Fold each of these.
Amino acid sequence: MRNKKSSFYILSLILVLALATFPSSSASANHAWGSYHWARTANPMPLKVIDSVTSDWDGKLNTAIADWDQSTMLSLAKETGSDSQSTRKRCRAVAGKAHACNANYGFNGWLGLAQIWITGGVHISQATTKVNDSYLSSGYTDTNKQHVICQEIGHDWGLDHQDESGADFNTCMDYSDALDNPHPNAGDYDQLLCIYDPAKFGVTLTTPTHSCTGTGHLDSFNSWTSSAPMPAGFANADVHAQENWGEKASDNGKTALFVRDFGDGNMIYTFVTWANQ
C-alpha cells in the first residue's frame, strides 16, 4: 500500500508537470494594439489585401489571408497588385487597404514589419506588411516565413503580440524564438471580437493562453471609403527607411515600436520584428 508521503510526492509531481504544460497566466492578457481599429458601420469588415509579393510568397500570403478571414469580424479579399521590384521595395500604403510586399530590403536588422496610418487618434486608415528576403531567403523554413507574414498582417488589424517573453503560445502572434507557429489561435480571434464586436462590449473572453474584455463599438463611417482630409504628406509619407519611422516608443530587442506624429491625431506606427543576429 502506498504511504501518504509517496502519494503526496506523486500528486505534487503531476501538478508541476501540468503547470509546465501551459504558459504562465501572467502573459495571458489583452493584446490589442492600443485602441487602434478600422472604423466601420457594420461587421464583418470587407477589407482588401493588395498582393505585391513574388510567386514564392503567394501561397503564404493566401494562407495568412485565409487564416485571418476566419474571424467573424473580417471579410478579406485579395487584390492583385504589381510585383515589380520597385513596387515591392517601396510598398506604398493605399487608402482603405492593406498592402503586402516582400523584397530584399537589406541587412538592416528586421525580418518583417507592419505599418498602420492612424487618423482621429484611433482609426486605422491604411496599412502595409513587409517581409525581408535579405534574411528570410536563407536559413529560414517555410514555417518560419509563414509565422512572420501571419504576424505582420495580424498587426494590420490592430493586434499586438500575445506574448514577447519567448514562451510558445501556439500562435503567430507570440514571439517564440523558434518562429514555429504559422497560424493564429483562438485567443487572436477572441481579441478581434473584443476590439470590433459591440455585442461583446464588457464581456470577458478567455482561452488557456489569453483573456480580453470587449471594448467594441460601431463607427459613423468606414475606413475603406472615408475621404476625410489628411495633413500634407501623411497618406503618401515615405516611411520605407528606418530614419523615417519617427520616434522609438519601445524596443525589447525582439520587437520594437516607432511612431511618426503628424499632429492632430494623425500618426504612422511601425511595428518591427527584429532578426536574430
Amino acid sequence: MTAVEFHEAAGIFPLLEGQELAELAADIREHGLREPIVLHPDGRILDGRNRYRACVEFEPQVAPVFEAWDGQGDEIDFVVSLNLRRRHLDNDQRRVVAAKIVTYRAGRPTKYSQSAKVSREQAATLMNVDVAGLDRARALIRHGAPELVSIVERGDVSVSAAADVAELPEAEQREVVARGAEEIAVAARAARRSSRARNSTA
C-alpha cells in the first residue's frame, strides 16, 4: 500500500502515540472504520491521520476509507472544528495548537483556501487559552528541539518549563528530554535562575 502524505494543516494537532494509537487500532479492527479519512484536494490527508495510521501500521491491516474535502471555507477551521470535539487536550496542548495556528496562517492562502492571517488574540480565543501562554508556545516552537515540542504535545510537560529549556543549545535540549519529564523541570528551573541572574547584572 502506497503511503499517503499528511497535509500541514492537520499537523496543528498532535498525533496519537503508544497505547492511545494501539487502542484506536483495536477499535477499528473490532468495529470498522466509522469515520472516513478526509483528503485535501491535493491528495494529502487533511483529517484522519490517526485513523489512517491505525489502519496501516498495525496487523492485520485495514483498508482505509477516504472521502474528499469539498474545499469550502478554510482548512484550518475545518481541522479545528473536528478535533476540538474529539480531542481532550490540556491547556498547554491547546497553547501549542494556538501557536501553530498563528504560524500556519502567517503564510499566503493557497488555491484551495481563504486562509488569512489570524491575530494572537484570535487564536487564543479559538483555543480558549491565554495570549501570554500562546506566546510562550510560539517561542518553544521557534527555538525548541522537535523532541521538546513533542513532549509538551503529549501532555507530559508544561509549555512554560519547555520554553525555558528551549533557551539551551539544541543538543542540550535533546539530552534533557532523553532523561525524562522530571529532568526537564529541573533544567527549566536552572534556566530561569540563570536568566534572572543575567538580568540582574545587566
Amino acid sequence: MAQKKLGIALIEIKTAIAKGDNLPAAYNIEGIAFDYLQVHDKAQMAYRQGLQLAPDDRVLRNNLGLSLVFSHDYNQAIQILDALVHEPDATERNRQNLALALGLSGDDAKAQLVAARDLDEASVQKNMQYYDYVRSIH
C-alpha cells in the first residue's frame, strides 16, 4: 500500500484472509485499497466484513463513513460518522469527516458547526468553499 502498488496489496490481503487471518485490520486495508481505486462498493463491503469481526472498531467505522461520502451516500455516511462524533473518544478526523459529509449533502449550517470545533474561522470558510465547489461539479 505504501508503495502505491494497490493490485499487489489486494492480492496479499486476499491471501491473508483466505489463510484464515480474519483480522479486522486486513479488511480495513482492503477497503482503503478499493477506495483508492474508486471501487467504493467493494471498499464498503470490506469495511463491513471487518465490522462483523469488530463492531466497535472506530477506524473501520470512520473509513466506512468516508467511503460512503465518496460514493455520495451522504445520509448513511452522516449516520455512521455522527455516531462516532458523539462518542467520548471522538477524534478531529471523525469530526472533519462528518463536516465533509454534511457539507457535501448541503447542510452548511451543521457542517460549519462541526468543522469549527477543530478549525479556525479561515479554515472553516475554506472548507465551506470547497464543499460548494464539489457540489457544483456533481
Amino acid sequence: MQESLEGLGEFGFISRIRARLSQGPGVVLGPGDDAALLRLDPRMLALFTVDAMVEGVHFDLALSSAADVGWKLLVASVSDAAAMGGRPLFAVASVGAPAGTDLAVAEGFLEGLAEAAETYGVSVVGGDVVRAPVLTASLSLIGEVAEDAVLRRSGARTGDALVVVGGLGAAAAGLELLRSATSGGEGARRLLAEEASLASAHRRPRGLVSEGGRLAGLGVRCAIDVSDGLAADAGHICEESGVGVVVEASRVPLAAGVERAGALLHTDPLRLALAGGEDFALAAAVPQGLVEQVVEAFESEALAPIAVCGRFTLPGQGRWLALPDGSRRPLEGGWDHFASGSGRP
C-alpha cells in the first residue's frame, strides 16, 4: 500500500528530515527548536538569499524526479552566493504539498536536497512543512564573503569586457527535448541519450562557487548568475551599473549539444542561450587590464570554461546584440514571471 504524507503526519515527516540532514561546522543548534543557532565569522559579511519553486511553474514531475527538484532548489541559492563571490553555509527549507502526496515523492525531494547540501557543504538547519494545493518549496540560504571581495551587479564600468563562465542554452534545450521525448519524439529521445548533459543541465544544474570566488580573488568586482538568460541578466548589470552593453552573437558560449538541439527543435540555439535561463553560469564585467589574467587563470586551473563575448558601453548607448554580418538588433528576451511572452521556452 502506498504511504502518503497524510498517513505519516507533519511531525513524522519532520523526524525523517532531521534524521537525514547532516550538520556542519558553525551549527550550534540545528532542526528541532524554534530557530537554528549559527556562529558566523565576524570578519566576514553574511550573504542571505532565498529561492522558491512551484510545481507547474518551475518543474514538472513528468520530466524531473522529486530528487532533481530538491537538488535544484538548493543549487539555485548556491548559485546566488557564487555570483557574489561567496561561500554558502547554512539553509532553511519550507515544503508545501497536498496531503495525499506519495511519501516517495516527499522523500525523493529530501534526498535530492540532502545530496546537494552535502555536495556544496551546506547545513540545512531547519524549515517548515505545510499542506498546499500543489507541491511547492522555498529555501533561504546564508553564506559568507570577504568584505573586500564582493561581486556586485553595480560594479561594471564603461569599457569592461562581458565575460561568461560556463556554457549557455543547455538547460532550456534539455527542457524542450525532455518535453518532446515525453510526447513521443524519437529524435529528441536519441539526442538526449547522446548528449546526456542537456537533461542534466535542466535537472541537476551546478553552482559555480569556486569560479565565483576565483573571479573575486583576481580583482573582478561585478558578476551575476545567469538564471534568467544572458540577455536579461546582462541587462540587470546594466541597470545597476548605469552602463550599456554590446553582446557579440558569434562569441556567446553555447554549451555542448545546444546547436544540435536547436536544429532538431527548429529553434535558434542563440535564443536558447540568450533567453532560456536556468544555466546558472556566471556573467561578469572584467576590466580590460584583467581580461588576459582572468582567462589564463581559469584555463590553467581547469575551472569552468570562460569566454569573452561582449563589452560594456557608455550610459545611454543601449543594449545590443551584434550579429556576424555587422548589423545590430536590440538585446531582448529572458524569463520574467509576470510578463506575457516571457522568453523561457
